[in-house]
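The records we work with from here on pair a chain with its fold. These numbers are not coordinates but entries in a learned vocabulary of local backbone shapes. To see the layout at work, look at the sequence and tokens printed below:
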Amino acid sequence: MILIRSALFNCGLLGSAIFFSLLTPLLLPFPYSIRFNIIKGFALFNVASLKWLCGVGYRIDGLENLPAGPGVLLSKHQSAWETLAFQKFFPPHSWLLKRELIWIPFLGWGLWMMRAIAIDRSAGRKALKLLIEKGKKRLQQGQWVMIFPEGTRVPPGTRGTYHQGGAVLASKAAVPVVPIAHNAGQFWPKGSFLKYPGTVRIVVGPAIDPAGKSSSEITREVEEWIESKMEEISS
């Protein structure tokens, strides 16, 4: 049944991706807030579909920790699930992602319309400079910035290298950092066709004020909070 349910979900995912890809170019004349709310319908549909077809639900705690104004969201990255579900839970935000995704037909259009920050990961300091430049602009426009500090999806029970880009951006823009832990990889593993029933736990941590802290100190604080929370919600 898991195979059949997963196959049905993937068919719906593909079909909705085609529909929203064709819809996206028509939204170009509209303001960003309208584009975001329409395009996130893709995410809302598939999060609901995943729960109904595959039994993958969710529980989120700590939303009261979100500051009133925009900030930098630094999240654990285990699955494709959070790239969908986070659009449901969090205010309009821009993703930091590798620029190759923008080049993908249809998908890239949607990411561009959502004001994603696309960087060349191999560019080193140039990539960091671009993140700060575009990230500050997004924050000044009232958008949040979503970053996976490990840079890529990591399997449950493992820890990647936490990069300092998000902390640097928060310091330069003088906005808070909000850490996020979740265990979505247990139910929708990286690269897996199968989706396993269960409840994804998402925990939003207390906001971190970057004032008076170095980017390495902020990153270390984020890492310690996320990884300690991962042990708690994954047990």
Notes: The first strand starts at residue 56 and ends at 61. The beta strands are 56-61, 72-75, 93-98, 117-119, 144-147, 177-182, 198-204.
